[in-house]
Structures are given as C-alpha cells and as structure tokens.
Write a structure and sequence with these properties.
Shape: globular
Largest sheet: 10 strands, antiparallel
Structural class: mainly beta
Helix content: under 10%
Order of helices and strands: HEEEEEEEEEE
Amino acid sequence: MTCTAPSCPRRTPRPDRRALLPALALLALLLAPTAQALKSDRQQPLRVNAQRFVAAQDQHITKLFGDVTLQQGSLHGAASRGTVYTDAKNKVTRVVLEGSPAQLSQQLDGGGEMRSTAATIDYSPATETAILIGAAHVDQPGRGSYSGARLVYNTNTGAMQGEGASGGQVHLIFQPHDKTATPTPAKPATVAPPAVQPAVQPARTHSGGQP
C-alpha cells in the first residue's frame, strides 16, 4: 500500500558511497601517523646549483638551466631548469624546479627517505612547504604513497595534503602494519624408555653324569 498522507514518514535518501570515497581517503591521510622530516634541515643553508644562469636583479629573479640542484641539509631537489626568487635583501623566498620530472627527496627522523616527483616543484623556505604540480607522486616509507594533480608537502613536519585535477581523485596507498609471527612452540622430545634386558638364567650343574 502506498502512503500519501502528510503524516507518512519521509524516507531519507542514502548518501552515495562512491561520492564519499575521496573524502574518506583524505580523512585517512590526515589521521595517519606523520613521517617527521629531519628537524636539523631548517637550520642549514639553502644551496642552488646549475650549469648556467641568467639574473634579472631589478626583478629579483634568477633563471637556472642545466642540471639544476637544490640542497638544504638532507633536502635534495633536481630538475632540468629552475627559477630562484629573492627579496630586496637578496634572501631566497622561492625556488621553482621544472623537469621531466623534477625530483625532491628528504631524510626522515624515523629512518628512510621521502621521495617525490612532479612536473613542477615550488619550494618556499619561509613556509617550509613544497608544492608539487602535475603528475605529482610522493613515497613516504612506513606511511604510504600518494598521487594527485597537486600535492603539498611540509618539509618540516612531513605533513601532506592533496587534490585531484578538475574534481578528480587523489590516490593513496597505505602500507600494512608489520605483523610479528608467533613462533610455534616446539614439541617436547619423546624419550624412549630404556630397553629391558632379558634375565640371565644361572647355568645348571650336573653331578654323577645323569641329567
């Protein structure tokens, strides 16, 4: 029977589970344990190298070409070209690495090394963040790997956030926890009972030659 009266209870539409998957994946990323970067990196000088550069001092921009590298402690970047932005005091405010792809890696406090690639890596020493744009991919040992159109990595805390392209999805792979195998208890050794030797009958003696 169909209920049409105003007093009939209305059915609450169920949420689309497929629409919830991206949100649940991002929530899992936020709740996962953070892989801490080396805290000593931020106290190290920032070094940038290249085969060739062109500087526009009035704009505080330096273009880098050929085997471009970035280093700050254990933080390493590599690309085919890059751009360095400085302020009025010639302090580096931003380094943009571009390559096929550009690469960024960093040692972690708990051991292991974060490795990442993207078409463009935009690093800001002031905010200690690296923005990876275009086919971005990050591997963090002990935590997992992440892929998306845009990923933001904090080089100080190791925290990450990401988004897909044009409403697309990001992809997260979480590593399983190590399981310590429970040793199987050894079976007690079976001790064989000592063999019973047959009793030796005393020899009979005969007298007078009769049995």
